[in-house]
Design a protein that fits this description.
single chain, Isoleucyl-tRNA Synthetase, Domain 1, Rossmann fold, 10-stranded mixed sheet, 4-stranded parallel sheet, 31 strands
């Protein structure tokens, strides 16, 4: 009867389950972290270490987290955890952006639903509702962020609406007041009619929009160019409603223009036979097609310079538009569309404004805050003013009325419709207009703000490096920073303006009284106080007007460095790193840079890292209307937060990231591979004692090769963490686990671990290496799969208050790195791949069962033979025997392109199967008293 040797085999033993059950396990680990005060312990552990401060770009407190939030916060947590384990004090203070239009809009929606008017509610009551709304969502988001495994000072986060923060934001704007950088100007700004406020460029997004287009004739009334006399200059515009604001025409100085006579026209055209117009020569064909001109003659040609000093009449001259319209030269005029002339309305565009003011042309006020023309605007104002857009952002009657009036005045050559990209509010999604309105600005030239900001960019590290050029070009070209909003919820521009002269009050005593009031009662104090409360006895209150505009929320968030980094003793200024999505080159990175350079002369950060946007699996932007969103809450509920964390680090987050069910499933599969690797280590380290540990010099080559690979990985881990290249680190670790360990080392050493005697050198060496593997892998993976790493660590090292996250990355001994050994074993593995390829065919053809039934002959080149000498190659190939020879091998031998110069002849191993280790050996049956065991197994069972 065959003896049952199962009890003598050292099989893996562990309580660590194969099935993760992360949705249930992770909350238990979170509760433990909370109970033991892990965040506080980390601060105590790292006291005195060099600070690493990743300053949190504040998310907006107005709804549940989406997948983009998860990407952002997980990436921050991975960085902080890795820096902490690299020996830094990586203190993370989360924060929230609380002011601004989205919250105000929600409260107004509630009012509208109840039939209430916001303006009839006392401002302090309205602001309290906004504050309560933000506070609620901070609570919701805090728990959602914590569920992702993000560790930080959740008990003492920062918010832009705390009294201390609001007071400091007031201090920051006062600095611009005192250094002359703040000024009031009347410029065209992006204006939301729906939201009744100016918007910053960062609050604007571009969507497809259909606009009315018109070709407008401006009769020439004065010119030195004979070829232009009596003709009409034709402009093309996609904003007919701006025609009442026209004050000039822009031409291209070096372009070639023609005087064109209309000789024939088609149906439904506004052009008339005999019209003589001036347009760019290169655009004759496109203008003729658009205006249904079927026949024309070029009467004369002229250069742009010939038009210098030309004066035109507004097409509605005689109806209130009596002013001259000069032809000016603008470098923004192109010949890729239109007519080669651009109509200039200084109150409705940045180029228009700059060209107009440079030539002393007035900037008219034509459109009010609600999108209607002011009463003084001829024809379109008065008692029944036309509107550009209505309260919901739909097109009003302005375009139609302007076009009809121009047709009646014979002012149009043609009209049409154009589908193009047009600016919209990123909140209301409604179209915007450029509108001239008094606003508060921070000058880009006063105090050399632009120069300082550009120099600061050059002194900053960018990840990826392309972020530098993007931010640099934005700062290089940006206009003055419009910082005022005509809203109610936010930090006021708490300054005084002289009622008669417009002079700004610059008095440090007044400033300090304002700040003190905000410290005690928040920014609400500005709205509930009287001027005398701040002015004191030095000034007459009736002479001064309190500015009630509020600050752009980007100024709020751009000031966070001043009330977080500078004022918290557990942080430092400047931050080590700012990290947000790539859109923040025009948002938080941008405003923080300008605010800090304007008040402190340098950036508030040493480095900037950007990640891409989240897309669905087809590469489309996520949208609830498309039904293609992936909600982090759903992934956590079904799979666990560690799967989301794995998705983040396995992706190249410098580019846009796709996510969906298929991708999440792939991450779950990858997670199982990592979990099984860790479980294998735990199972085979059961009962490991320090006395078993074997010195490096006494280990077999295979174990020394594994340690060499660990040394190589150690370099990759540290380089990746320093460069924030976690994708590289993840790929290296995953491939090491899947290929080097599971597919190679573990497969080979199962036999020694299960069947060798406990004291054998080979088994001790393997267990020593497994211990090193455990220490390195669990710590290196801890920033990625933080819950699982904790579970694994505590399974092996149970503790009341211990945590893998309190550990440091291992220091790799220099002796482990052995390049020559690594190269040798690459050659060994290449030959092995040929052997395993041959045996796979043998198994498929059922000529053998397990590989241990084989004893193949392998033919190799001399260099391969030299590498295999001294190695038990049968052990490496998991065969019972193997014969290695130098030579080409027979023609019918197995060969593979993956191992050139290697030929394999599969053969059955000779001998009898050992009933304990299952190797087929000739020695089995020849050991006295143990007919069914090999010598090795006899020694093992005799211990």
């Amino acid at each position: 009867m065959t003896t049952d040797y199962r009890s003598t085999v050292f099989l893996p033993t562990t309580d660590f389950p194969m099935k993760a059950g992360l949705p249930a396990k992770e909350p238990e680990i979170l509760a433990r972290w909370e109970k033991i005060g892990l965040y506080e312990k980390l601060r105590a552990d790292s006291k005195g270490r060099e600070l690493f401060v990743l300053h949190d770009g504040p998310p907006y407190a107005n709804g549940n987290l989406h997948i983009g939030h998860a990407l952002n916060k997980i990436l921050k947590d991975v960085i902080n955890r890795s820096r902490q384990m690299m020996g830094f004090d990586a203190n993370y203070v989360p924060g929230w952006d609380c002011h601004g239009l989205p919250i105000e809009w929600k409260i107004e929606e509630k009012y509208r639903a109840a039939g209430k008017n916001k303006d009839e509610v006392p401002i302090d009551e309205f602001r309290k509702e906004c504050r309560d709304f933000a506070d609620h969502w901070i609570g919701v988001q805090r728990e959602e962020f914590k569920r992702l495994g993000v560790i930080g000072d959740w008990k003492k986060p920062y918010t832009t609406m705390s009294f201390a923060a609001e007071a400091q934001i007031v201090r920051e704007i006062q600095k611009f007041l005192m250094n002359g950088g703040l000024f009031k100007g009347s410029k065209p700004v992006m204006w939301s009619i729906v939201e009744r406020t100016a918007l910053a460029e960062a609050e604007v997004e571009y969507h497809e929009h259909t606009s009315s287009t018109i070709f407008v004739k401006f009769p020439v009334v004065k010119t030195v160019a004979k070829a232009a006399e009596g003709a009409s200059v034709v402009i093309w515009t996609t904003t007919p409603w701006t025609m009442p604001g026209n004050r000039a025409i822009a031409a291209a100085k070096d372009a070639e223009y023609v005087r064109l006579r209309v000789d024939a026209v088609g149906e439904k055209t506004l052009a008339k036979v005999g019209d003589e117009v001036i347009i760019a020569k290169d655009l004759i064909e496109s203008v003729s097609k658009a205006c249904a001109i079927e026949g024309s003659s070029v009467l004369a040609t002229l250069k742009g310079t010939d038009l210098a000093g030309t004066i035109c009449a507004h097409p509605l001259r005689g109806q209130g538009y009596e002013y001259d319209v000069p032809v000016l030269f603008g470098d923004f005029v192109t010949l890729d569309a239109g007519t080669g002339f651009v109509h200039i309305a200084p109150g409705h565009g940045a180029d228009d404004y700059n060209l107009g003011t440079a030539n002393g042309i007035e900037v008219p006020h034509t459109v009010d805050a609600d999108g209607s023309y002011f009463r003084h605007v001829p024809i379109f104002g008065g008692d029944r003013p036309a509107r550009v857009l209505d309260d919901s952002g739909k097109e009003g009657d302005a375009n139609g009325r302007v076009i009809a009036t121009l047709i009646e005045a014979n002012g149009l050559l043609g009209k049409g419709r154009l589908r193009h990209q047009y600016p919209h509010s990123w909140r209301s999604k409604a179209p915007l207009i450029f509108r001239n309105t008094p606003q508060w600005f921070i000058s880009m030239t006063t105090n050399d703000l632009r120069k300082k900001a550009l120099a600061a960019i050059d002194a900053t590290e960018f990840y990826p490096a392309g972020g530098r050029n993007r931010l640099y070009s934005m700062i290089e070209q940006r206009p003055d920073w419009v910082i005022s909003r005509q809203r109610a919820w936010g930090v006021p521009i708490a300054i005084f303006e002289n009622r008669e002269t417009g002079e700004l009050l610059r008095d440090e005593e007044v400033n300090e009284r304002i700040v003190e009031a905000c410290l005690k009662g928040g920014a609400d104090a500005w709205f509930t106080a009287q001027p005398a409360d701040f002015l004191g006895n030095k000034y007459t209150p009736s002479d001064w007007k309190m500015v009630t505009d509020i600050l752009d929320v980007w100024f709020d968030s751009g000031s966070t460095h001043s009330f977080v980094l500078e004022q918290r003793p557990d942080l430092k200024w400047p931050a080590s790193l700012y990290l947000e999505g790539s859109d923040q080159h025009r948002g938080w990175f941008h405003s923080s840079l300008l605010e800090s350079c304007g008040t402190r002369g340098r950036a508030p950060y040493d480095a900037v890292l950007t990640h891409g946007f989240t897309l669905d699996e087809k590469g489309r932007k996520m949208s609830k209307s498309l039904g293609n969103t992936t909600e982090p809450q759903d992934v956590i509920k079904q799979s666990g937060a560690d799967i989301l964390r794995l998705w983040v680090v396995s992706s190249d987050y410098s580019d846009d990231l796709s996510v969906g069910k298929t991708i999440i499933q792939a991450q779950s599969d990858a997670y199982r591979r990592l979990r099984n690797t860790l479980r294998y280590l735990l199972g085979n380290l059961a009962g490991f004692q320090e006395a078993e540990r074997l010195p490096h010099a006494q280990m077999p080559e295979l174990e020394r090769w594994v340690l060499h690979r660990l040394a190589e990985l150690g370099t990759i881990v540290r380089e990746s963490c320093e460069q924030y290249d976690f994708h590289r680190m993840y790929v290296a670790l995953y491939n090491f686990c899947a290929v080097d360990l599971s597919g190679f080392y573990f497969d080979i050493r199962k036999d020694a671990l299960y069947c060798d005697a406990p004291g054998s050198i080979r088994r001790r060496a393997a267990r020593t290496v497994l211990d090193h593997l455990f220490d390195c892998l669990v710590k290196w993976l801890a920033p990625f799969i933080s819950f699982t790493a904790e579970e694994v660590w505590l399974t092996r090292y149970p503790s009341e208050d211990g945590s893998v996250h309190r550990e440091l990355f291992p220091t790799i001994p220099a002796e482990w790195l052995d390049a020559a050994l690594g190269a040798k074993w690459e050659r060994v593995r290449r030959v092995r791949r040929a052997v395993t390829g041959a045996l796979e065919i043998e198994r498929a053809e059922k000529r053998i069962g397990a590989s241990l039934q084989a004893g193949p002959t392998v033919y190799v080149v001399p260099e391969d033979k030299a590498a295999l000498d001294g190695i038990d190659f049968a052990e490496i190939c998991i065969t019972s025997s193997i014969n290695v020879q130098v030579g080409d091998g027979p023609a019918d031998a197995f060969r593979t392109d993956d191992a050139k110069g290697v030929a394999v002849v599969p053969q059955q191993a000779s001998g009898i199967k050992c009933e304990r280790c299952w190797q087929v050996l000739e020695e089995v049956g020849h050991v006295p008293g143990h007919d069914d065991l090999c010598k090795r197994c006899v020694e093992a069972v005799s211990v």
